[in-house]
């Protein structure tokens, strides 16, 4: 079984299509999206249309909730971009957002399970980082157990042990240069890649592949510049255009 794990697309269709082309080159049995699909990027509607075509399960992220009217960021720039993204959505897009689940579990083999969430099963706003104390992680995961527990939210790839489990963050497809959750984590400006993960379970063997692939930067920048998204400078300065 090969499971592709994607997260934090943030309205970046160019990056999403790049990752999907990579995945099409191998045998993938499932794709699971870990949330934050459309907000804060220049192609929110287009990304939702593409995900609906995939038909993959999607976990609810914090910025997905913003698009349904929950409190948005306290940053003026992000609030303005979020309002613009909401205006781009159709009724069908909003219905699709309401279908997202807070977490999901998928059986693997030999009694092992994959647990998927955005920040944690407790809250899409939780941050599980390499430096998060185990006692804090225990509270976030209370009532849940799995061989592999995987999320997004921070935009920073990570793998760590938690008791007998692997805790994984697959990074961000659409905004990997933005630290989205914790002041103790780095903010990697000027990136040129998309991030995702693949979980492989074969004949009792389990492996987790965290991947980073290059992007077509001119296409990324053009998608933004050809949109009417406000505060485009915020988006453009995240990408290494040199």
TrEMBL record:
Pfam families reported for this sequence: Metallophos_2
GO molecular function: phosphatase activity
Domain Calcineurin-like phosphoesterase stretches: 1-177
InterPro entries given in the database record: Ap4A_hydrolase (IPR050126), Calcineurin-like_PHP_lpxH (IPR024654), Metallo-depent_PP-like (IPR029052), Pesterase_MJ0912 (IPR011152)
Cellular compartments per GO CC: cytoplasm
Record-linked PANTHER family: BLL5683 PROTEIN (PTHR42850:SF2), METALLOPHOSPHOESTERASE (PTHR42850)
Protein family per UniProt: Belongs to the metallophosphoesterase superfamily. YfcE family.
Name by which UniProt lists this protein: Serine/threonine protein phosphatase
């Amino acid at each position: 079984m090969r499971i592709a794990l994607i997260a934090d697309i943030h309205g970046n269709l160019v990056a999403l299509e790049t990752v999907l082309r990579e995945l099409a080159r191998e045998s993938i049995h499932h794709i699971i999206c870990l949330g934050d699909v459309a907000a804060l990027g220049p192609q929110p509607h287009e990304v939702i249309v593409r995900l609906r075509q995939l038909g993959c399960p999607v976990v609810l992220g914090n910025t997905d909730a913003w698009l349904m009217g929950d409190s948005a960021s306290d940053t003026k720039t992000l609030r303005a971009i979020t309002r613009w993204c909401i205006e781009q959505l159709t009724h069908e897009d909003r219905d699709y957002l309401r279908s997202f689940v807070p977490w999901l579990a998928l059986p693997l083999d030999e009694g092992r399970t994959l647990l998927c969430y955005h920040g944690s099963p407790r809250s899409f706003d939780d941050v599980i980082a390499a430096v998060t104390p185990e006692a804090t992680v225990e509270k976030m995961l209370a009532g849940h157990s799995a061989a592999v527990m995987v999320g997004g939210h921070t935009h920073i790839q990570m793998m760590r042990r938690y008791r007998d489990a692997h805790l994984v963050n697959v990074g961000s497809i659409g905004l990997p240069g933005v630290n989205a959750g914790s002041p103790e984590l780095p903010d990697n400006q000027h990136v040129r890649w998309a991030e995702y993960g693949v979980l492989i379970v074969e004949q009792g063997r389990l492996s987790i592949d965290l991947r980073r692939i290059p992007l077509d930067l001119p296409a990324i920048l053009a998608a933004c510049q050809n949109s009417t998204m406000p505060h485009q400078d915020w988006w453009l300065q995240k990408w290494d255009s040199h």
